[in-house]
From TrEMBL:
Spans annotated as Disordered: 1-20, 512-561
Name of the protein in question: SpaA-like prealbumin fold domain-containing protein
Residues that span the membrane, as ranges: 565-587
Gene Ontology annotations of biological process type: carbohydrate metabolic process
Key words, A-Z: Membrane, Secreted, Signal, Transmembrane, Transmembrane helix
Length: 592
């Protein structure tokens, strides 16, 4: 400022160096409390020498609070301290902000703006008559014409600064600590990162006009979080005050403060400063509130009284469920080793796993017990069945309500025994050589039905022996079965005699069966039909024997005697051949 006065005094017209986004930060120390109403910003008019040097004497100062907005915030408003500071610094209007009754931020904007349009401009004082007021003040104080000219030029709206205010007095009406000492460090930040700091300490010989104020009062009302019209008695708090080193210390006599029938605690005789209520016992049936409730007693507060409301959420109604896993055919048989997950139904009707309850296993007595469940609708979902039993895929749903007797639900979860499954291997071999396996034989598999009839097992109507001569069937339920051959292997006679077997508890898991087929016999040879015998010729009439009765002599194979004998022999031979052929034919027919 001195350099600006000197420049004006020398007839210069340079604009004051601009400080963009000018922010003053001052944190209260030692448990001091403050609000935005406790901060006052003034515009000073300093005396100068005829050479333009600024003097410590003030001709006057104007309160310019009408040019500032005020805002008080805390973490309870859903923002961080840094976010709050940036909001004050970047506000469109000069702003005084106080964070949690202890940190003061004053945002001035760009100083000077450089175009005379800033909110912080002398023309905005006294309805546009700021220069006239300054001139009047100077006339009243009897400054020399040279001094007046310098000051008026400095504040002129026609000057290089456009009448922007470039000097400020910030008054913070904080309450002194109990030992009368107050320390602080103020920071002035501008631009992106530039800053300057000033620190110091002061001793206050008077507190609020020389009288120690102990008329601060705090009134806390405890209510139901779901219905503020319900006040809660029986909550116990302690009251703490922030100390000069920013630690917290319990206020003497406020170690156990209990809400009355109206849900209230009233504490009087408090010094100015920052305090907090800390809940140490919740009302009966409610959850403990861990977050302290902070407040401040400041000199600017009406009647030095702070009022606040503290909420508590009802303790959830807790119940339990007991699941018993039993045999579906005999509920006296309890089943250990079943694994379940527990799901909870949401408000939209969807189901979600309850954390920590994804793998609940039935104990030796077949039981699962789950406690501390809030009222609501749940279901057990089986994820692994007991050994020897089928998995039950239907969830078991139940509801815990506030009116549930004893707040306990019992459910039963039956399981059906896994069916006994068996199978069979059929081997097809040659009847004359059992080592020769037969492929290509076709069978159907039939099961004995309840009515005594046989029915083909679905999917088993055309079973064919492979290259190893085998047919294998599996996963057959308990019952009686049979293989029925429907097509023989090539070159073999069909054997349609059924081969039966059964699947039962205690039997081998797989029946082994063997079926034989006889080769088809070769076709018989056609018999040789003998030729028909020739008719014998007519024998010659014998001649008259010679006289004397002597018989004629014939040589064998000659003459008529020989012809006759040959004919007889041929006829006999043909008859023998015919008889022999007939006998052979009869024998072959018998073999067929």
């Amino acid at each position: 400022m001195a350099s600006a006065y000197a420049d004006y005094a020398a007839g210069g017209s340079s604009q004051s160096e601009q400080r963009p986004n000018l922010l003053l930060t001052d944190e209260m120390q030692g448990g001091q409390a403050i609000t935005s109403d406790d901060v006052v910003v003034r515009m000073p008019i300093y005396a100068t020498t005829n050479a333009g040097e600024a003097q410590s004497q003030q001709y006057a100062s104007f309160v310019i609070m009408s040019l500032f907005d005020k805002v008080d915030k805390s973490a309870a408003d859903g923002m961080t301290q840094e976010e709050f500071a940036n909001s004050v610094r970047g506000a469109a209007t000069p702003t005084i902000g106080v964070w949690e009754n202890r940190v003061v931020y004053v945002g001035f904007g760009d100083v000077p703006s450089g175009n005379g349009t800033s909110t912080l401009n002398v023309k905005n004082l006294f309805d546009g008559n700021g220069e006239a007021v300054v001139e009047y003040i100077l006339d009243q104080t009897g400054v020399s014409p040279a001094q007046k000219a310098i000051v008026m030029k400095y504040f002129s709206t026609a000057g290089p600064n456009g009448g922007d205010i470039t000097s400020f007095l910030v008054e913070m009406r904080a309450d002194a600590s109990e030992d009368g000492r107050y320390e602080n460090t103020a920071t002035l930040t501008y631009g992106d990162s530039s800053s300057s700091q000033g620190s110091g300490s002061a001793y206050f010989t008077e507190i609020s006009g020389g009288v120690e104020v102990r008329d601060g009062k705090a009134i806390l009302t405890k209510v139901d979080a779901g219905d503020a019209g319900i006040t809660l008695s029986g909550a116990v708090f302690k009251l703490e005050k922030m100390q000069p080193d920013n630690s917290w210390e319990t206020v003497a006599g406020s170690e156990r403060l209990t809400t009355n029938a109206s849900g209230q605690i009233t504490v009087a005789g408090l010094l100015l400063g920052q305090y907090r209520f800390v809940e140490i016992e919740p009302p009966a049936g409610y959850v403990m509130e861990a977050e302290p409730i902070g407040f401040a007693i400041t000199s600017s507060m009406p009647d030095h009284t702070a009022t606040m409301t503290a909420e508590n959420t009802k303790s959830p109604v807790l119940g339990k469920v007991v699941l018993t896993k039993v045999d579906a055919d005999d509920e006296t048989v309890k089943l250990p080793g079943a694994v379940f997950k527990l799901e909870e139904r949401a408000a939209d009707g969807t189901w979600t796993d309850l954390p920590g309850y994804e793998a609940l296993t039935t104990d030796g007595g077949g039981l699962i017990t789950v406690e501390d469940l809030v009222v609501g609708t749940y279901r057990f979902v089986e994820v692994s069945a007991p050994e020897g039993y089928e998995l039950e895929t239907t969830p078991i749903e139940f509801t815990l309500a506030e009116d549930t007797p004893g707040l306990e639900v019992a459910v039963t979860a039956p399981n059906t025994k896994s069916p006994v499954l068996g199978g069979a291997v059929l081997k097809k071999v040659d009847a004359e050589d059992p080592t020769a396996v037969l492929s290509g034989a076709t069978f159907k598999l039939e099961q004995l039905l309840a009515d005594g009839a046989w029915g083909t097992v679905p999917g088993h109507g055309a079973l064919v022996t492979g290259a190893d001569g085998l047919i294998e069937v599996r996963d057959l339920l308990v019952g009686s079965y049979r293989f029925v051959e429907t097509a023989a292997p090539e070159g073999y006679v069909l054997d349609d005699t059924p081969v039966e077997f059964s699947v039962a508890v205690g039997q081998p898991a797989q029946a082994e069966l063997t079926m034989k087929n006889t080769p088809v016999p070769p076709d018989p040879e056609e018999p040789v039909v003998p030729n028909e015998p020739e008719e014998p010729g007519t024998p010659q009439q014998p001649g008259t024997p010679p006289a004397g009765g002597t018989k004629p002599v014939s040589l064998a194979g000659t003459g008529d005697g020989a012809s006759t004998a040959l004919a007889v022999s041929t006829a006999a031979l043909a008859l023998a051949a015919a008889v022999g052929g007939a006998s052979m034919l009869a024998l072959r027919r018998r073999r067929r």
